[in-house]
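So, is this right?
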Amino acid sequence: MAQDPKPTLEQLNILIGEWETSVPGLEVPGRTTFEWLESGGFLIQRSTVERSEYPNAVSIIGGTGSDGAFQQHYFDSRGVARIYDMTLKDNVWTLFRDGPDWPQRFVGRFSADGNAIHARLERGSYPGGPLEHDFDMVYTRILP
């Protein structure tokens, strides 16, 4: 069985730009930007939400996993820090962690033109537990 080739940072270019974010059914507007760290090497993701009960966050994305696999190092305004394993393949962006508190998964599917991401977020209620739908999220590109 052939293994997938090692991910390359160029695969992350599809994320570059500024995105408006929304949660269908809730008034939770936000913005997310993706930009390269000066001189490259890592992608910086900054997320802000216009409601104080939801955290703002910064994430560093790069090939820091085993064998150069993508990981997202997440930090938010609550003081939460997490590491997610990440893939970006065939216009599907996936983040996963099986943390000490509960598992989480994000699956975002890009639109045909690459200017929207429709994401489903799932979480379990205990370590190793089954994943259940948490909420959906939509990213709409506003600046390339």
Residues 100 and 127 are 6 Å apart (CA to CA).
